[in-house]
Design brief:
mainly alpha, 11 helices, globular
Amino acid sequence: MKRYLYYIYLSFKVQSMYKANIVFSIARAFIFLAVQIALWNALYMSGANIEFYSLNEMLTYQILSAIIASFLTGMAPMSIVQNDINTGMIVNYLKLPCSYKLQVFMTNLGGNLFAFLFVSIPMLLLSNIYTRIMLPASIGAFVYSVLALAFSIGVYFELYYMFGLISFWFMDRYNTVGLLLTNVIRILSGAIIPLTFFPSWLYKIVTVLPMRLGFDFPISIYLGRIGMLETATGFLLQILWIVILWGVNKIFFNLGLKKLILQGG
């Protein structure tokens, strides 16, 4: 277990070496959030009839979404796997007496922790310049939303890990597929606008997809917009998607290794 914890430490330490990246990440996230807040303020002030959320709820939604995005949608699992496959370094990692996937997971977890401490928390403090975030609907809502976020780390890891494994068959040198998939995820997850604004037919589809479970689901719990039945259903969906994606990734990985052996001997 110690060797896996070392990957968290190593990832944390590597990222702390690039202080300029920290400042840039905070500035980029804060500017994006500021634009979002300004747009929603202007929309509500214009007298637009928005029945789903009050202004305070919408601004809180946007702040929470930006905070979550700062540590959840990093493409580390995909980038690590892509690089290892494209350079052939994956062969060296497979020789180590520990699971390759767990190595990637712990490295990603270290990155998540670093981003939460040095980007998410500063974002939360800086957001008070524009508006004050609403308190959770209840203590239970806060606890369940944090738990939902913890599960969503597993969901998103499996999702990005799967995208990385595609490199066994498709070499994406310029990361165009990765960027495209990330933008699609941000839209369908409710990271940019709440899913309740989607057309009913699209809403029914995205509510069962794994992307929603990282943004719309925990934020809805926090704001008290869903009951216990929907909350329990959401947790079951998170576990189900982790199991499904784990199975798909295992198949992809085994098929990819066969291709790697056939090509490399």
